[in-house]
Amino acid sequence: MKDRDTILKRVRDGLAETPERTPYPEYDPACAVMRQPHEFSSLWELFAWRMKSVNGVPLHGWNALGDFLRERALKFGYCDPEYTEAIAAVCGSLDITERFDRNDLDRYEFGITAAAGAIAETGTIVLTDAATRPRLAALAPWIHIAILQEDDIWPDSPTALKRLGDDPSVIWVTGPSKTADVEGILIEGVHGPGVQVCCVV
Amino acid sequence: MKSTKAYPTRQPVDRYASDLSPSVQESVYNASKLKTEARVDALQRDFADPDANRRLAGAIKQHTLDHLDTYLEQAESSLRENGAAVHWASDAESANQIILGIMQRNDCRRMVKSKSMVSEETELVPFLEKNGMEAVETDLGEYIVQIDHDHPSHIVTPIIHKNRQEIARSFEREGLGAYDDDPTVITRRARDYLRSKYLEADVGLTGANFVSAESGRIVLVTNEGNARFSMAAPRIHIALVGIEKLVPKDRDLSLFLSLLARSATAQCLTVYTQFIGGPRHRTQRDGPEKMHVVFLDNRRTEVLSGDCRKILRCIRCGACMNVCPVYRQASGHAYRGVYPGPVGAVLSPLLKGKEFPELADLPKASSLCGACNEVCPVDIPIPELLLRLRNRAKHEHVSLAARGTPSMGIWARAASSPGAWKTALSAGRLLNVVPHGFLNLSSPARAWQSSRKLPPFRGGAFRKWMRERNPPKNGVPSPDRKSEPDS
Amino acid sequence: MGTCLCDAFFDDAARATVEVLEYLGCTVHFPEAQTCCAQPAFNAGDWAAARRVIRHTVGVFDGELPIVIPSGSCAHMVYHGYDLALEGEADADAAPRFARRTWELCDYIVNGLEVREWPGTYRKKIAFHRSCHTRGTRTAESALALLGSIDGLELCTFGEQEQCCGFGGTFSVAFPNISAKMGRIKLEHMRDGDPDAIAGSDMACLLHLGGILDREGVALPRVHIAQILRDALKSEGLLS
Ligand code: SF4
After folding, report:
1. Cross-chain Cβ contact B248/A34 below 8 Å
2. I need a surface site. Which of A135, A179, B2, C40 has the fewest CB within 10 A?
3. What predicted TM-score, i.e. pTM, was given to this entire model?
4. Atom of ligand 1 minimally distant from the CA of B375
5. pLDDT computed for residue B410 by the predictor
6. Which CATH number is B54-298 given?
């Protein structure tokens, strides 16, 4: 507690001689919303266009997801129990498990989890602790597939901030994990997924 | 050192720049230039008036600093409500001790770290290692810095000074596989190796890009996903946070996130933006059971009370170094501190406290071109702050800062006395007192003349013309001003 | 205000400034007691020395007439430096009063006198360096608007226009290597379009860039914008 009081006292003393304290500016957070290059017919259209622009893979409907899984010749992965039935229906050849074993991270080719929302403006998927389980299944496999209800696409980031709620871990995901640390060259899939999919159902 | 001998008046940063290998200089220059251009393109493409957003963000940050006592207390109670333990550290030593204490009390031996400039400030990793703990950097660039026992040379792209061949050799040396300088291979190898480290670790340490005082949410951005991993595998999360990282409300975050991502890497949003509001959800299997937040002062309060308070607005985007012509030539290590470039030229000497003279030359390492202010997402008037620190160095008679700067005393005497000035002009003796001091044939003059030539001296010619001519008769009194001058 | 650099080296730029203003109908006064705007001492961190010179300058230009300076950096010094140097001093309010009367030449022509089109011809290809002290102000735009309106004048576009020439006053002395390198990069860009001359609205930048060209034995002319404006008038007989 000693340091706490010292620091707060130093702050107060430091501020004491501020002749004019800057007021909190009145503003509309919409000023941070970017303009789009053209009109989009729906939030889904905008979201999909934006997600593609950050190298994400937007899909519409279970069948599209089935095609994606088959095209990639995927065999084994994790799936949130909520969706196993739907996945089995569109891609019967898959070996899916509802258990994610953290000691065997690299066995899972993909992880299918829920998304709590999405931001159309930036092509961003919103993951939460309550909806997206477990944390590692959405992070460790090379391919992460987020399942999203179409109604949960929000227009922009100020709207998404209003929906933070009381979840202890909200994560906005905008494209696959990436780095440009080595000579500025873009490489995808550093610690997180190299392929980021969002399937709207 | 040959170069120093030739021009003893040269500043250390200038020497660093000329001793830098051409290949390093080229990669730093090219990378910074590309990032500067991408940043401008992104902002102009996405916003009608990006400058208005910079100024607004600057005002919000300034407001926060001007009311920091209130916001710190508010943040503390929101964080507690979220279930986080809040600690306060007045200096680096006490921050490191707090973190070590948390690890010892919870029986922890291993830490994974995501990027945090503040932990560089406190030299946390060497401290923990000395105390028998393992601490692994997980940001790819920082990891490479760590295995090379090097220092980051940029706050966003820490290994901007290294090429892939060097990195490949380091990986080979560390036993991460046979030499291969393909960046994809390098990245995959780091991915594989660090996975095991995440899973073994008991503690994940992060910094914070922002803390909302209103909700106590810690906001963290990374592109690689290492901060996510550091908070998915280990059971304890520690966030080490400078006290200036606060913003008043959640609603302010969209503005700051949009500016940070564009200014740092020309993205609309960084890939992973995390809003951390406490330990994991009761239904979650992964993630920390406990969350600790350590607020660090480390002379920030001293800066707050001085005339350079505005530097504390900084959100560490790195745009000022990317655009800075001096940084582009000298690279980051020339700044001899955690924060390079224009922000470092202000912040590093200030954070030195009484040892200010050691880095008092940094504020001189600028042509005052103002490019840093023009790009700064929180509109910090960096040139003004550099000037204030130059004035302080002069006051404190810091010889390092004075090196290469001709004394202004004689010049000021001439320039405030018309008689002396005119005599100097007409007698051509202005050569000895003229500003910029490069005319006297001393070492500074030689330094200047080594790569430039002065034009012929024509002192007094204009005055003579002005006196002797017959001004045209069509002269009318000065026309009315139609507007105010531009400042 | 004539500026110390024009006083010492670039008398023709100062002459051209006077001629251009007179063409526009102004009566130009040149207080003989003037010296320098105080920028060298201010930028060197010697604010005590700077204050002496500032007070001298403020005294010399006493009155109500507008003060026109053919240099962006000197105007910038008056706008921002005087304020800082006099902060907390008894005569601090002299700074804003002085600043309100002070104009950079192109700003004065375009925004003060509302002259946006320049008559005359100037048949040359010019690479124009917008000097750093006009950053974020309308001065650079004003200069470009004037140049763009002159018949025959071709403006080169070049890369990294926002970058500094590397002068920076004492910076160029204490950091000779970085400063010269910056200048060479700037010149490389400016010469991309093969201009007939390089131009600017601040003789300090041109002193530095010209110094590098001379050292390298390159004969490329350097002109102040006032000289271009005057020569354009002369070529059409609008000025004798
Ligand atoms: S000073 Fe401004 S531009 Fe530089 S890192 Fe900080 S926020 Fe970015």
Report:
1. no
2. B2
3. 0.93
4. 3
5. 76
6. 3.40.50.10420
In this structure, what CATH number is given to the domain that contains residue A68?
A: 3.40.50.10420
The beta-carbon neighbor of B59 closest among A3, A25, A105 is A25
CB B464 within 8 A of CB C15: no
DSSP string, A93-131: T-EEES---GGGGGG-SEEEEE-SEEEGGGTEEEEETTT
Rounded distance, CA C18 to CA C3, Å?
13
**Cβ neighbours of A4 in B, within 8 Å:** 88
Q: Do B274 and A171 touch (CB under 8 A)?
A: yes
Which residue of C lies nearest to B404 if distances are taken between CA atoms? Answer: C174
The token pair that represents B461 in the structure block: 């010619």
Query: What pLDDT is recorded for position B447?
Result: 67
Non-local CB neighbours of A57 within 8 Å, separated by 6+ positions: A51, A68, A195, A196, A197, A198
> What's the rounded Cα separation, in Å, for the pair A80 and A98?
6
Instruction: Please report, as a single letter, which amino acid is at residue B172.
Output: E
Q: How far is A91 from chain B (nearest CA, A)?
A: 28
Ligand 1 neighbour B315 (Cβ under 6 A):
yes
Distance B161 CA to ligand 1 centre (A): 20
Burial B251-273 (b: 16+ CB within 10 A, else e): bbbbbbbbbbbbbbbbbbbbbbb
Residue B180 is predicted with a pLDDT of 96
Handedness of CA A148, A150, A155, A160 (dihedral sign): negative
pLDDT at B445: 63
Rounded to a whole number of angstroms, the distance from the CA of A153 to the nearest CA of chain B is: 17
For the beta carbon of residue A19, count every other beta carbon within 10 angstroms. Answer: 4
Segment 286-325 of chain B within 8 Å of chain C by CB: 323, 325
| Percentage helix, strand, coil for chain A under 3-state DSSP, each rounded to 5 | 35, 25, 40
pLDDT tens sequence across C97-140 = 999 999 999 999 999 999 999 999 999 999 999 888 888 778 88
Q: Chain B residues with CB inside 8 Å of C210's CB?
A: 455
As a whole number of angstroms, the distance between CA B277 and CA B219 comes to 9
B324 lines ligand 1 (CB under 6 A): no
The owner of tokens 């925004």 is C111
What is the CATH code for C125-235? 3.40.50
Structure confidence by residue, pLDDT tens digits, B348-363: 999 999 999 999 999 9
Q: Which of B283, B375, B255 is nearest to B327 (CA)?
A: B375
Choose, out of B28, B30, B228, the residue to mutate when testing the contact with A (most A CBs < 10 Å): B228
Evaluate whether chains C and A are touching (3 or more beta carbon pairs less than 8 Å apart).
no
Distance from CA of A38 to the nearest CA of B (A): 12
Chain-chain contact of B223 with A179 (C-beta, under 8 angstroms): yes
DSSP string, C100-112: HHEEEHHHIIIII
Q: Residue C64: is it exposed, middle or buried by C-beta count within 10 angstroms (0-12/13-18/19+)?
A: exposed
Q: Tokens for B96, please give them.
A: 């490191």
pLDDT band at B456 (very low <50, low <70, confident <90, very high): confident
Nearest atom in ligand 1 to the alpha carbon of residue B317 is 8
Residue B446: pLDDT band with limits 50, 70, 90: low
CB contact (8 A) between residue B269 and residue A35: no
| Candidates B60, B164, B305; nearest CB to A14 | B305
Residue ranges of the alpha helices (H) in C115-224? Answer: 139-148, 171-174, 176-190, 203-215
d(CA B408, CA C44): 8
ipTM tops 0.95: yes
Q: What is the mean pLDDT of chain B?
A: 89
Q: Say yes or no: CB of residue B50 within 6 Å of ligand 1.
A: no
| C123/chain B closest Cα distance in angstroms | 26
Whole-angstrom distance, CA of residue B363 vs CA of residue B367 = 10
**Which pLDDT band holds residue B427 (cuts at 50, 70, 90)?**
low
